[in-house]
């Protein structure tokens, strides 16, 4: 409502950055619930919109979400086709990162291994992307889409061919967790998706 917008504007006027408000609202989401946090993110996105003003495609996409795009994902670039960006959101309690994909970018097939627990959860926050488990049809990821990925399931995720995509990636705690990177998603497999 308008009172929350006023408080967000006051926070910005007092020096709270776009990244800091994203961290604050993410933390609050665990206590107030994701529907309320999601509503607050939408308001904060508008309040901080001018912080992302520019003419290029990356900056235009940044204006669609409150979370930062982050830095080029060079540490994992060998496991991606195309360019991706990584922004750590939280490293306390649960590891959360914003993963942003340029149009056509996707990661290789991979498995989040765990003896018990583990896996990953994705929440779409901007743009349009894809998630696919081995042997199943691909699922479209839009803002608000929640994907639960159990441990030891082969899958991939990335952007649609015609636009940017971003999702929050939650690492689910477990015992003896690791990532196993596998073969790339072929152009033939990927180009079937519309």
Assigned CATH class of the largest domain = Mainly Beta
Q: Structurally, how many domains make up the residues?
A: 2
Q: Show unreliable segments.
A: none
Radius of gyration: 17 Å
CATH superfamily of the largest domain: Jelly Rolls
Number of E strands: 15
Query: End-to-end span in angstroms?
Result: 37 Å
Query: Order of strands across the biggest sheet?
Result: 1-3-4-13-8-11
How would you state the average pLDDT, rounded? Answer: 90
Structure description:
The chain is of the alpha+beta class and 194 residues long. It has 2 domains: 2-53, no CATH class; 71-190, Jelly Rolls. It has helices at 2-13, 18-32, 34-47, 57-62, 187-190, and strands at 71-72, 80-81, 84-90, 95-101, 106-107, 110-113, 116-117, 120-127, 129-133, 139-141, 146-149, 155-159, 165-171, 174-175, 178-181. It has a 6-stranded antiparallel beta sheet with strand order 1-3-4-13-8-11, with helices on one face. Strands 10-9-12 form a 3-stranded antiparallel beta sheet, with no helix packed on it. A hairpin with a 5-residue loop joins strand 9 and strand 10.
What's this, in brief?
The protein has helices at residues 2-13, 18-32, 34-47, 57-62, 187-190; strands spanning 71-72, 80-81, 84-90, 95-101, 106-107, 110-113, 116-117, 120-127, 129-133, 139-141, 146-149, 155-159, 165-171, 174-175, 178-181. It is an alpha+beta fold.
